[in-house]
Amino acid sequence: MKLRLKTEEFTELLTTVLPAVSGKTTLPTLSHFLIEAEKNRVKVYATDLEIGIESSIKTEVEKEGACTVPARSLTDMVKALDSEYITFKKITESQYELSDGNTTFRLMGGEKEEFPVLPSVKEEETADIEASKLKEGVEKTIFSVSRDESRYVLCGIYFNINTDSLEMVSTDGRRLSYFKEALTEENGSFNAIVPTKAINVLDRALPGSDDKVKICVSASESQIYFSFADTILYSRIIDGDYPNYSQVIPDKPTKSIIADTKTLLDATRRMMAVTPEKFVAVKYRFADNTAVLSINAPETGSGTSNAKVEYNGEEIEIAFNPDFIINAMKVIKSEKVVLGLTTPINPGKITPVSDTEKYIGVVMPMRP
Question: Which of 246, 270, 291 is the last residue of a domain?
């Protein structure tokens, strides 16, 4: 095995795959990259048995071959070299050399057969989704995924892909985030709960906001695959039935408060200056086109703040976790939001005024 690589491209390749390397494992091979070189292309793969990433680049392959090498060591070595090109080659059955002509590193490696078998991509049902839409869906749902392992089915984002639409949903039982986007092409229909770790890795690996970049998504009974450019992200699917989220979203709130997004967001943030505690409620009183926010933290102090809103209905006072309100509102692009309420004990519904932004945030009230 012998390769001549462009340092910058190889660094980017390793950095793309590195997040799938297992941090703590009893299987040493899971801390390795699997590197395969053939036909003027080198492919790098890593997995922690929950997620896997493979990616490849074109390069000069002088001698084909495959091996496994310690992932973080190889990445650090490549980053330490400053020449435009480097060589990577096999020295002995268990030793490999990395060199730029001035600096030479050697590292121990293993055989391809020692590495877990790569999963095969299933393509019975697939969907092509614009990268920008997928990134927006992640941004608008990732913050309300549950971290409670005892409710494992909630520890991921639920994807519901239909022939003409994408729905992404997350909830931790106290709040819910819902995102929907139309798809321009007819696709297959399937659904899956994708674990948080895979979502975070996907978000970092996705291209930027270029609408022309399409992500091919496909799923089997136990795996979901996101494929783009020369990269494939594999992830196991969380087994279980996701809650019926349509029953949680308030259908027709009886009170609709229209507020400037930034104004209400800033007012809520000011209340959090009273205390760093995350579970101290902020009370919102709406009447006479005014929102009065207040907080009382016995150990640190209290505060109030007024903000103009559009609401002339019956006065209502309700308490929310300010973190939940902030997280929901800061992902809304519309200049104005609608806060839909019914009673002080029913959940609040946060939506953008703009019809083009298909997002709903649902927040359960707190005891003031």
Answer: 246
Q: 368: pLDDT confidence band, cut at 50, 70 and 90?
A: low
Residue 172 lies in a domain: yes
- Position 208 confidence tier, pLDDT thresholds 50, 70, 90: low
Based on the fold, state whether residues 105 and 131 are members of the same structural domain.
no
* C-alpha distance from residue 266 to each of 74, 223, 289, 307, 341 (Å): 46, 41, 17, 10, 20
Cβ pair 51, 233 in contact under 8 A: yes
Q: Are residues 200 and 291 in the same domain?
A: no
pTM score, two decimals? 0.91
Going edge to edge, which strands form the sheet with 60-63?
60-63, 2-6, 85-92, 95-99, 104-108
Does 89 share its domain with 151?
no
Of 126, 133, 138, the C-alpha closest to 204 is: 138
Q: Please check whether residues 37 and 91 belong to one and the same domain.
A: yes
**What pLDDT is recorded for position 211?**
56
Question: What is the identity of the amino acid at 105?
Answer: F
* CATH code of the domain in which 275 resides: 3.10.150.10
pLDDT in tens, 213-255: 889 999 888 899 999 889 999 999 999 999 999 999 999 899 9
Residues whose CB is less than 8 angstroms from the CB of residue 123 and which lie 6 or more positions away in sequence, other chains included: 218
Q: Which of 79, 114, 149 is the last residue of a domain?
A: 114
CB 29 within 8 A of CB 114: yes
Confidence of residue 209 (pLDDT cuts 50, 70, 90): low
